[in-house]
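[Help] Beginner question about ligand-bound structures

Sorry if this is basic. My supervisor gave me a protein sequence and a SMILES string for pyridoxal-5'-phosphate and asked me to "get the holo structure". I don't really know what that means in practice or what format the answer should be in. Inputs are pasted below exactly as I got them.
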Amino acid sequence: MFDTLTKAPGDKILALMGEYAADSRSDKIDLGVGVYKDEQGTTPIMSSVKKAEQRILAAGKTKTYLGIAGNKGYGAAVLDLAIADAVDRSRVRIAQAPGGTGSLWVLMQLVNRARPGATIWLSDPTWPNHNPIAENAGLKVAVYPYFDTETRGVKFAEMLAALDKLGKDDVVLLHGCCHNPTGANLTNAQWDQVATSLARTGALPLIDLAYLGFGDGLLEDSYGTRKVIASVPEALIAFSGSKNFGLYRERIGAAIVIARDEAQADIVNSQMLNVIRSSYSQPPDHGAEIIRVILEDKELRAEWETELNAMRARMIGLRAKLSDAIRQRSNSKDFDFIAAHRGMFSLLGLPNSVVEHLKATNGVYMIGDSRINVAGIPEDRVGDLADALLAAIK
Ligand SMILES: Cc1ncc(COP(=O)(O)O)c(C=O)c1O
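Answer (accepted):
No worries, everyone starts somewhere. Holo just means with the ligand present. The predicted complex, written as structure tokens, is below.
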């Protein structure tokens, strides 16, 4: 059977993690892997999560199946968090899914049932797994301009011009906040224009909402999502609780459908549940139950928000420190964009030769396209990192 197969390409990020682990230099710096890290360089379990888990352990009475759509309380709490009252809930359906990535998979399969072979437009750049998930679902992939390597901001005029040309059978993948790989985000005024364009062309937005709370605040970060869904008849959202609840390995997310009306929502939902039933059947509960317990309990929710705010403040602080250190040393504003970016990542816009040089000479690891995880910057080594960056680009 398997003699027809050849080896699939390995994952570049996992390979980089392996290289980092094998590097014996004690002063190496890991800016590659995409998980939040605290000052000690660890990814701890949030205290609110620990408390919720203790409650679940004490109160749990059954491990019977959850149902295809998953944990109902979780679904309601996620909708409150992600979309609030932006649209009438009679048009909204939600299915818990394994992570934001699993949610993308469910939603793209769903799109392909509605419009086989439809084109999904991805930003340039985007995460490397958007493309294969879309293609595996049967969709065609096209690209719209997003990151400006000169300004390290968004090429908004070009992005909007591309979106303006789309039609009713197109799908546009948008990053709800903290555009994952680049750190460059749309302003609220730009979200307004994107929403107007989508309302006019009828293209279907699919919002990848993986970093809610990592940018400027929970409500602030959901502005774009709320604005878009309030402006269009139909929309999809892939929510992830991996980053903002630190639940990476629990695989917790949600596929959300906003349909034209209630009757259509029921039809679309039945297809979405059918997609799930014919693949992994039903979702796991643990991550969803943790999030439900936290969001439904006033005290735990406040504690979680405090923890999330601290994570966000730490990342914003590190951004400011690194760009200040570079400015002081170089007398140039070339890296000020690091402070202006939001979320966990910044795309530095450096050639791969510089990325390789930093790894070989300084033990500074980042993704090959020069994307860094700012949470990986050691607080006490910001100066060293600035020195290394400036020496490498000379
Ligand atoms: C494209 C994309 N969207 C969303 C997520 C959200 O993360 P998770 O699938 O772990 O919930 C990820 C993380 O790997 C991702 O690569």
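A couple of things worth pointing out: Residues 99-101, 104, 127, 129-130, 208, 210, 240, 242, 248, 253 surround pyridoxal-5'-phosphate (CB under 6 Å). The radius of gyration is 21 Å. Feel free to follow up in the thread.
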